[in-house]
Design brief:
Chain lengths: ~475, ~475
């Protein structure tokens, strides 16, 4: 690779080639997985380029296309599957400095790709609005990184996931060609680029829907039995009049052992439901909690300043932060991603809980999924060997609980994204040389890859809709 | 009844005893039903009293209690089941002039009982908020009348119905005793008074949740086959990221024959989906409409001023307004209220459509119901005899589609409200002489009435929750 030539062509742009910094900017949270840690630990780019606007992005892509240098885009590097890791070296396109909030309207916000989600809300909240969905890395994750590498998060209990039409409104995308084109995607076409890890275009603008902002109240409800917590969560998740933003359950002893800042509110036997509720929905929630004999362990609305000192917000106990807090205490653990399909999601959870016990302590995220309430799991796994991990995956799947395997770094193997003929045609069109984030889309690397299988994908293919 | 004595006691209050006006204020939309028309046409009160504040309400109740005069509260008289009709004469307590919006906060509004729903929104909209739910009589219905006599409406596709916890936050209620008490109800206790037709207390204040207000876009999508309209509606109803406020389907030829102001957009073969969608959700909706080959017959966002001249808002084609428009064209029709239970609601609709054809043209209102999307029907019935009407009811129920019979004026027979022991105990406490809206609660009149039956009630009993 002619990195020296590339540097000359990019003169005037912000470029970093210090190997230590380049390596740091070539990594994400892949080390959550002992498998990915082994496979990807050596990965590094040759250069980090940090464009500040679309014209600079186009300049980088044009130059890299000419010299055949791979480009892997990166937001804040908060992914967990090596989404933003440059498997073939080349350029990491760091979009963190291309980050303004461009316009706010009723129900809509337009931002640059590197805009931090929490910063977007800081600007929309004075008008009473906030974004619908955010990962637990709200305070660091970028808009385009979330859309290209994430799937949902807080807000999914109300709005479903990024996979659902309406949760992203528009994307501006630059192609990787001799003369890069700027595409304005809307409607179903958005799915071509969403959760594609930047393999088929560089996002330069994101339009997202906004919803009503509230001063969400953090509530932790305790139960002496994990299935009681799960049944309570399922009950409140199905209350159509109860406005929640987040609803998770975590099995004992994970809360006490790993949520160190919250430990003062917990006992080791406590399984918990973690809830973000609108202030005007708090009283109905407490009514249900009393009826179901849930013990309220924490309420941010009445906690004293002393009690709240140093406490992270509740959403930083949920989604991938649950595992992160576990890893800080016990670096030998890891996790899985499970879908417990509606309508037997509670039964599915109960079965897995019975089979695995404390080897796989439960962690569920309740969400709407194609119109119904169900839950996905991000259970902690007390890791022993890769063989046993694969066995745990197989037992889940044999019991009707599909796994989106976070120990795989390709789009397809993780089960998140079906790369069908429409998707492939778009990749051919937008990245004919295959220089964007190479190594992540199996269907591109291996023409014989069978995307027609019965595997469950979170982001389904586009062929059916197109046909 | 000592009406003369009562008048003396109420001196200074606003009283009406002109028989023509009293009769007019003793009626609601009971004439939707040929059965209720026959049964209730003669009903009239002796006096209409119009209190303007809680103190005046208390004065009326105290006086009526002393003299043993029945009191039937009334909002705007937009009910369809004789909810506000004084079966035993006495006083109609007209709350229409006790109607201020008292306070607006983030997510909450507090109003007096007679506040018109549209007027509440006029006051909350400048702050970007609106009420969650309203009937199609939005422009005339009162807050307490809706809660005491209604069940849901526009907004139910997002929030479920009034029956769901969180959709009403507080009620202030005056009891019918020698010394009337003022009760402040919250949480589960609200259910004692909701949809009880004022049989157990007079509502003097309502606290409701607010949600984000949008300039909803009215969309009419056309289909050449009713089941295509139903399947399309079911598809979009299940899109968690698609913000809708209203979603109904109406079978041909009802739209063309009865929606006279909209006839210019319709052909007689058009079955339609009636949709209120947030502006920022319009494009995703149109994407789905194109994929499903729905023909967009009307969009309020691009209709010309000329086209919109004289058009009612779309919600005035839905819920009970569909039937109302039919009755204006053909006074011999009537309607039913059907629940098509999840998950076989579409199959249930298909079966009833096949059995009845044009004798019972379909009208569905899609809504969330205990966490899932299903639909209730308000089908037009081409009425012949009461016997055939009863037979149509029976055929629905035999096929697993419960009927909430709008041709019955009691709480229980309509199937809307289970009056169990908790409910009865509350009535005994709040209205020991049984003077509030007498004749509407069978369980009160007939101690042997069996509320334990398997009948499906929209507002379930309180005994289970209390136990």
């Amino acid at each position: 690779m002619d990195i020296a030539g590339l540097k000359r062509e990019l003169e005037g742009l912000k470029i970093e080639d210090n190997p230590a910094i380049v390596k740091q900017k070539s990594r994400d949270f892949f080390w959550y997985s002992p498998v990915l840690k082994r496979q990807l630990d050596h990965v590094t780019a040759d250069l980090v380029v940090s464009p500040r606007d679309e014209a600079e992005v186009i300049r980088v892509l044009k130059a890299c296309y000419g010299l055949g240098v791979p480009v892997t885009p990166r937001g804040s590097g908060t992914g967990n599957y090596g989404q933003a890791m440059p498997l073939s070296g080349g350029v990491v396109l760091n979009l963190a400095e291309f980050n303004r909030v461009k316009s706010i309207a009723r129900g809509r916000v337009v931002v640059e790709p590197g805009a931090i989600l929490a910063e977007i809300d800081r600007q929309t909240r004075p008008g009473g609005q906030e974004i619908r969905l955010h990962p637990s890395t709200y305070n660091t994750a970028s808009a385009a990184g979330f859309i290209a590498g994430g799937s949902g998060g807080c807000g999914s209990i109300r709005w479903g996931g990024l996979r659902n039409i309406g949760n992203v409104l528009g994307l501006r995308v630059v192609t990787m060609e001799e003369e890069p084109r700027v595409l304005q995607l809307k409607g179903r076409d958005l799915m071509k680029v969403m959760h594609a890890y930047g393999t088929n275009g560089i996002v330069t603008e994101v339009e997202m829907p906004l919803t009503a902002a509230y001063d969400w109240v953090d509530v932790i409800a305790g139960f002496d039995n994990y299935m009681k917590a799960v049944r309570f969560a399922n009950l409140i998740a199905n209350q159509d009049g109860l406005l929640l933003k987040e609803l998770a359950t975590v099995a004992a002893p994970v809360p006490y052992d790993y949520f160190l800042r919250h430990r003062k509110f917990l006992k080791r036997k406590d399984s918990v439901a973690l809830i973000m509720v609108a202030p005007h929905a708090l009283e109905p929630l407490l009514t249900l909690a009393a009826e179901e004999k849930a013990e309220i362990l924490f309420r941010s609305d009445i906690a004293t300043a002393e009690e709240k000192k140093g406490l992270p917000p509740l959403f930083e106990l949920t989604w991938n932060h649950t595992t992160l807090r576990g890893l800080r205490v016990d670096p030998t653990i890891t996790y899985l991603q499970v879908l417990y399909p509606f309508p037997s999601h509670v039964e599915g959870v109960e079965k897995m809980t019975r089979i695995f016990g404390d080897e796989v302590p439960g962690h569920l995220e309740f969400q709407r999924f194609d119109g119904n309430v169900c839950c996905s799991g991000l259970p902690i796994v007390r890791f022993t060997t890769e063989e046993r991990l694969d066995e745990i995956v197989r037992i889940h799947e044999d019991n009707g609980c599909p796994i989106f395997n976070p120990h795989r770094y390709t789009l397809e193997e993780g089960g998140m994204k079906r790369t069908d003929a429409v998707q492939l045609a778009f990749k051919r069109d937008a990245d004919p040389k295959g220089l964007l984030n190479p190594g992540k889309m199996i269907a591109w690397e291996d023409p014989d890859y069978d995307w027609r299988s019965d595997k469950v994908y979170l982001f389904p293919g586009l062929q059916a809709a197109a046909g």
